[in-house]
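In the current project phase, we have settled on a layout for protein records. A sample record is reproduced below.
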Amino acid sequence: MTEQSSASGILRSMPWPAAEAFTALLTGAASMFIIARLIGADEFGRGSIALGLILISLVGVNSLVHDALVRMPDMQPEDLDTGFTASFAVAMLFMLVIILGASTIGNLYADHRLALLIVAFTPMLPLAALSETLIATYRRGLDFGTVARFQIASRAAGAVLGIVIALLHGGAWAMAVQNVSMAAFSAGAMLFHAKRWPHFGLSWPRLTPMLGFCAPIIASQILTQGTGRMLLLAMGHWHGITMAGYWSAATRMSENLFGGLMQAAYNVSLAHFSINQNSRSTLLASLRDVQAVTALLSIPILAGLAVVTRPLTLLLLGPAWLPVATLMLGPLVVCFLQIRRMFPTTALRAVGRSGISLVASLAEFTTLAIAFLAVGRQSAVDFSFVYPLGLLAGSIPVFALLVRELGTSVWAQVATFLKEIAIGIVAFGVGTVALSSFADSAIIIQLIMGGGAAFVTAASLLVLTDARHILRIAGAWQHSN
């Protein structure tokens, strides 16, 4: 296998996952904007707090054995049964704990409806245990198309039902209906298509290595999700549920735009990187190529979005949501750092170094806790500007281990990172100047001119500063097809 072939393989595997991510963007982002606008910031904040508590637990269910099954060289039916049984047991345990603790959370906010909402979201947990183990078997076989088709259909159905409930003045219950129905459709579709249904049966000798590999990943993701959700809870506690709604909209806007695509890219790259886990030179070459392509695709979009947060918020959510425009800037920078860190983390997991995720999450949690206590309690807006410091602190141990494990140059990594930051800043400046020239124009014109100027500037600078590398990747892609 050549150094370029693995990267080409990742690119060839991306169309279906990318289609899934794009559909997730259309259904997730569009439904979020529509539902948020229909139910208002207060109801959206209430629903976001309830959903956030479930999402923390959902990480433990989804990640309990998924990556271990995908990475397993020779998976047997008993491995699937063991993974499903363990995931289902954990899901039921989390479900029981959440139901018992829902009233306490409701009392904390003096909001009985919040407690009922939390309980309404809990069916997502056992449904996820069923679907995620089956999904792992398809991803392990590089059958991303089947997963994508069912996920697309499930998200679309959930979005439609959620919007209908919002139109019927269901308030935050629209979010519960959307997410639970999406999980139910996904589980049902995977069961319908599965050649073999998972059975209840637990083998500790088979489960132990799965948990050994996935435990740091689970702890890392729970800590990461927990940090984000705790921030949301703190926003609601110190600044009111309406501010929690603003903060949730600001963070979820970037999550919806890039979260699905990042997850798709992670699943594809993990499968392909795992194939080359014993060839560090091939793995490093693939990593460099994928990072270059990802930078070219993401930085221009992020720069453009950062320029037009105000007109974009007015267009999608309306004047009542205008505080979201300023709050969005920090999460967009966080999104860039997440994209920048994702592939190195995936490569390290492929070679068995999954523990680095936990180290990174601990550094991130510590930094954000200090930043929130110092700044966030006084001002949510000020906190949004120091929010990226958490991801920055968490990225340091990841890239340090990458240098040691794959032998890449530390100065090359630093130089590339600083170059991308500089390009983003320049593009943001150019876009801001262009936007100010059309401040009195229609919102669509502001979006096109301001965002377009930033996008073109960033894309042009990225191509010019890395032309040889990008041309080689394009040539390898063309040759592989």
The chain has 20 helices and no strands.
